[in-house]
Every structure is written in C-alpha cells, then in structure tokens.
Amino acid sequence: MSEAPADVWDVIVIGAGAAGLMGAAEAAFQGHRVLLLEKNRRPGVKILISGGTRCNLTQATDKRGIVTAYREQGQFLHSALSILGPDDLIKLIEDEGVPTKREETGKIFPVSDRALDVVSALMRRFDRSGATLLLEQSVQTISQQDGTFTITTDKQTFVAGKLLITSGGKSYPGCGTTGDGYAWAEGFGHKITPLQPALVPLTTNDPWVLRLSGLTLPDVVLRIADRRGEARGAADEGNAPAGKKGKKKLPWLDERRGSLLFTHFGLSGPVVLDISRTVTGHPEPTACDVVVDFVPDIRSDLLDEGIREQCAAAGKKQIGGILQKWIPHRLAEEIFQQAGVSTETRAAEMSKAARSQLVRWIKEARISASGSRGYAKAEVTAGGVDLAEVDSRTMQSKLMPGLFFAGEVLDLDGPIGGYNFQAAFATGMLAGRCV
Ligand code: FDA
C-alpha cells in the first residue's frame, strides 16, 4: 500500500472518504501516480459510522431514481451515474467479496450489517490500483502556479499536476470533516452556495411534543409552514376590498411522508431528517411550523365521521379511549389536551366543535420549530461548490484547469436512503477517470 512517497505526483486527492477512496483508485487504474491524503488515522471514518455502523451504501433504484431524488441538483449527476449507477456500485462492492442486501425501504446494506466490510472492500480495490494513501496528513494550504498544484500538510509539502478535492462537508466535524474544502475552492475563485445542516433532527420547545419522547410513528405526513407568510397572508386579506375576503390557502414550503420519532429535544426519524433542510435553509427557522398529519390515509371528513360513530357506540363511557383506533394512547392524551377536550367527557355528549378540534389536531398538529441540532448532528451539509462552475461530464473546475471536485464538498445533498453515498461514489469515480 504505502511505499515511501516521492514529493511529485500526477494526481493528489484530498480526503479518504467515499469519493476520495473511489476517485484515487480510479485515477490509479488509469495509469496515474496517485497520492491520497487523509487527516484521520484511518480511511473512511464517516463510512464506518454511517447507517448506524451498518452503512446504507445506496438505494434500490435506477439512475433516474437517483436523479429525481436530487431534485434540482439531479441533472448534474447524469454523467457520474452513467459510469456508476446503483447496480454498478452494488456489483463493485460485491465483487470485492462483500454481499449486499436490500431492506424493505429500498436501502442497500452489506449482508453482514458491518460498515467496516464496505471500507475493507474499498481498501482492497484501492490497494490493487497502486495508489498511495498517507494518513494523519492534514492539508493546510493549496496553491497553483504554472499548471502545478502545491499542497502543504501539517507535516510536508507535495506537488501534483492534477488535484481532486474530496474533503466532504462540515457536518460531524469529529470525523475530520471541518469544511476545509470550501475555503480552498473559494481561493480558486469558486462560489460556495450557502451552507446549512441537512438531514438533521429538529428542535422544539413545545412541551407536549417533548413529553412524547421515545414514541415512534411509522407513517405520518410532515409539512412545513411559514408563520410569517401566513401572517402576511392574513394581513393582505384584511386589506382586501369588501366582498373579496376569503381564506387564502397558502402552499406548504415542503411535504414528506415517512417515520417520525419524538425525542427529548424534539423531532427525529427519517421523515424529519428529509424535511429538515427546508427549516435550516429558511431565513428565519424559528418562524417555521412543522405540521403533522398523524393519519395521512384518512380524510378529515371521514375521520370526523369515524369519531362520531365511535362516540355513538360508546354512549355513556368517557371519551378517553376513542382515538386509539387511529393513534397511540400516549399521543391521544396529548391531542385531547391540546384540543382542549376533557377525556372525562361522556362519549354521547361530545360536541361537534370538540370533534372538529380533535380532527384538526390529528390531521394538522402544529409544532413550532426552535431550530435544528446543527452541524454536530447533521448527516450532510447542504450547499457547497457551485455546480454551475464544475463540468458535470468530468468533475473538473470550469475556472481552474486541473482542479477537480467530487462528493459532498459540491453543492449536492440527497435524502436519506443511501443517496448521498451513491452521489459521492459516482462523482468520485468520474473525477478519477477524467483527471
Ligand atoms: P467524507 O466526509 O466521507 O470524506 C471526507 C474526508 O476528507 C474525511 O475523511 C476527512 O477527514 C477528510 N478531510 C477533510 N479535510 C481534510 C484536510 N484538511 N486534510 C486531509 N483530509 C481532510 N450517507 C448515505 O448514503 N448512507 C448512510 O447510511 C449515511 N449515514 C450517515 C450517518 C452519519 C452519522 C453521517 C454523519 C453521515 C451519513 N451519511 C450517509 C452521509 C455520508 O456519510 C456522506 O454524504 C459521505 O460520506 C460524503 O462522502 P465524501 O467522500 O464527499 O466525504
């Protein structure tokens, strides 16, 4: 693996994460002398902690599925996915002796449930490629003159004709990802689109939500509402000419469906992580409400009718138990309280107004966001090197010949489910092939 390095290399790659390990090996397979520099004591630290140390390496979908999941960033991934789509990535890992499995959610994991096996597979490929890995080399400065890059670490200086930056984002900084790549890119004139934590749990101070800590709901719909927008909408209505007033339906900022977990600080679980970017990217995150539909498959009018029927059947009994057909008991208790309906009311005496309050709280429970858990707990960083300034067919900078980017340092962030590794591996491979 690491024979004593000469100072001059064809290609230097910074960051031995998903994109760097893939990119450096690919460049070496093309016949280049390649040096991969990593500040940590071991490669692939983020891979090791990913997916609860199981590593969800990609998603059971095709290239189009990945492109679609990346929304407006998806177009940028076409060329990368054409050389390493989800099936190709699975095959590559399996060919290194690590069988994979697909879970119900479409997530692909190693059969062993060990992220370490994925890193070992990548390292076997890396070693075969002939590339060199130097650990505990923290890159400090980069400069370029006459087509040669000079890279200085905390220990020594290297030069190379081509440079691939795969230093990741700035979330989970304990993994080595402290956002260093953004400053280097800026130094070469690149624009960095606004950075924000993404795939991150959300916080709230609403006591009823905090009381539900530990409760998991497998299938809810979350929507994000902007209270400021609604306030403006209401004011506009107030100024509307007589006869033109009416409740204006404002669009949600975002909507996702999936599993929700209540925690001691607020909200987590896949659906929250996926929608979190809309809150963290909002100019005033505390103006966001997370609006929860606890029973997305039941229309409000049918739920209202269902509660009425339950009440009629329960007669003189108290109403405490009537919501259990739809939601767990702990949640029902909080919903009664929030809706201002006493659980001691006799079922037959429940008023229409009380019923519609309950329906509103089950279908549109409002939770005010107080923020997020920040970069410390964000699985990815949204924003990064502006995609408009990078050639998506090669991953080369449009501003600086010989400079390449791949992985999370780019303005790429996907949903949970293996999409982020897929993009990192694919862009890494494309960059390695094109250096
Ligand atoms: P990555 O972060 O992997 O690697 C960058 C490397 O650069 C690091 O090793 C860092 O030390 C190094 N580096 C940085 N600055 C340096 C410097 N100055 N000098 C030298 N080296 C430097 N995704 C997914 O698809 N499935 C999943 O299951 C998960 N799970 C998950 C869990 C958790 C807790 C986190 C934090 C993240 C995930 N992710 C995920 C996201 C995924 O880990 C992430 O998108 C990829 O690792 C990005 O790959 P990169 O190669 O771009 O960066």
Largest sheet: 7 strands, mixed
Q: What is the CATH homologous superfamily assignment of the largest domain?
A: FAD/NAD(P)-binding domain
- CATH topology-level fold name of the largest domain: FAD/NAD(P)-binding domain
Number of helices: 14
Query: In total, how many domains does the architecture comprise?
Result: 2
Bound compounds: dihydroflavine-adenine dinucleotide
- Cα radius of gyration in angstroms: 26 Å
β-strand percent reads 15-25%
CATH architecture type of the largest domain: 3-Layer(bba) Sandwich
CATH class of the largest domain: Alpha Beta
Detail the poorly predicted runs: 2-6, 234-246
Q: What's the mean pLDDT score?
A: 93
**Global structural class:** alpha+beta
Alpha carbon gap, first and last residue: 21 Å
Q: Into which percent range does the helicity of residues fall?
A: 25-40%
Q: Mind explaining what this structure looks like?
A:
The chain is elongated and about 85 Å long. The model is unreliable at 2-6 and 234-246 (pLDDT under 50). The chain has 435 residues and is of the alpha+beta class. α1 packs parallel to α14 (419-434) and α11 (300-314) packs across α13. The chain folds into two domains: 7-195 and 381-434, FAD/NAD(P)-binding domain, CATH 3.50.50.60; 201-373, no CATH class. It is 34% helix and 23% strand. The strands form five sheets. Strands 1, 2, 6, 7, 8, 9 and 20 form a seven-stranded mixed sheet that branches. The chain has a six-stranded antiparallel beta barrel with strand order 11-14-13-12-15-16. The structure holds dihydroflavine-adenine dinucleotide. Dihydroflavine-adenine dinucleotide binds next to α1, α2 and α14. Residues 14-20, 37-40, 45-46, 49-51, 55-56, 138-139, 166-168, 171-172, 176-177, 180, 379-380, 407-408, 418-421, 424 line the site of dihydroflavine-adenine dinucleotide.
